């Protein structure tokens, strides 16, 4: 029986994690819950899963304390955004396994997170990184030639930059495959999410960023691949359902019986792959630049994007301007010589202020 803390329990990852636990009560026990603001749903979850009132809390700061003070085996960090950094660091410090869906905390924290983690302590929950972790079991690290992240292409696959100028917030939220929150869905449309995932893969698996590629796979059945130096490529395939990587994140390295339905090979399928147009979708190219620069650049990339996404949904800027704003903020950044939590937090504040000022001047 694994005791589980769920951070972001009322969000997409958290609610699906609870669905997995509901179906596998002999495997998991929920010992604490934290959410951002939906107190009513949080109370319902606590009642259903028998979580004491002082173990069901609101807010990132409360989540950090919850992790530090609650005995558990696994922490699912499903918080959205870089506010998940402190809970991530707290989890690693306590020695609990971190099932990480909050990619931003790893990306902005960089080596602060990787150096705090014991070998195998971080288990990825993003479908792409869960796939890579599974594929990497097929060989030795020295045998890996490249990691290949798949991308659905979002709702604007094949669009030109000119066509993207007309995109509305409603269209950006109409993802063809996945059901996600506002920020992640918009990031998928701009490909910022894939840029973040590229940096995440680099940090999680210690693979040089130039050996990580992105391919567009609209069917979202092949979740990512690993190419080995003998020319073989291993792929992890399953229908697009986040319950599988969530279940595996909680039970790693064991698997949960029938976590999701498997691909039905008695039926015909057509899976296609195509290169990502990094001229139209410049977020991935910028992420490579940011990932190589390291230091507080990833924190700036992420924070500026979060501000730009909010402005886009308030109809203050256009769709193409989201990545343009991030690029200008990244170009203006001068990082501190030493990477620290304080430096990361300060860089985020600076990036948000810089992004807001740029967007105000542009209007």
Strand content: 15-25%
Note the gap between the termini: 55 Å
Side-by-side strand order of the widest sheet: 3-2-1-4-5-6
Number of strands: 11
Characterize the biggest β-sheet.
6 strands, parallel
What is the percent of helical residues? Answer: 40-55%
Helices and strands, in order, run as EHEHEHEHEHHEHEHHHHEEEHEHHHH
Cα gyration radius (Å): 20 Å
Mean of all residue-level pLDDT scores: 94
Domain tally: 2
How many helical stretches?
16
Global shape: globular
Give the low-confidence spans: none
User: Which structural class do you get from the secondary structure elements?
Assistant: alpha/beta
Structure report:
The chain has 363 residues and is of the alpha/beta class. The protein folds into 2 domains: 2-124, Rossmann fold (3-Layer(aba) Sandwich); 126-240 and 261-282, no CATH class. It contains 16 helices and 11 strands. It has helices at residues 12-22, 39-49, 60-69, 85-94, 103-109, 111-114, 127-136, 161-164, 169-172, 182-190, 192-205, 243-251, 283-293, 297-313, 319-332, 341-362, and strands at residues 2-7, 28-35, 56-58, 74-77, 97-100, 122-124, 144-151, 212-216, 222-228, 233-237, 274-275. The strands form 2 sheets. It has a 6-stranded parallel beta sheet with strand order 3-2-1-4-5-6, sandwiched between helices. α1 links the parallel β1 (2-7) and β2. It is globular and about 55 Å long.
What are the main properties of this structure?
alpha/beta, 363 residues, 11 strands, 6-stranded parallel sheet, 2 domains, 16 helices, Rossmann fold, 5-stranded mixed sheet
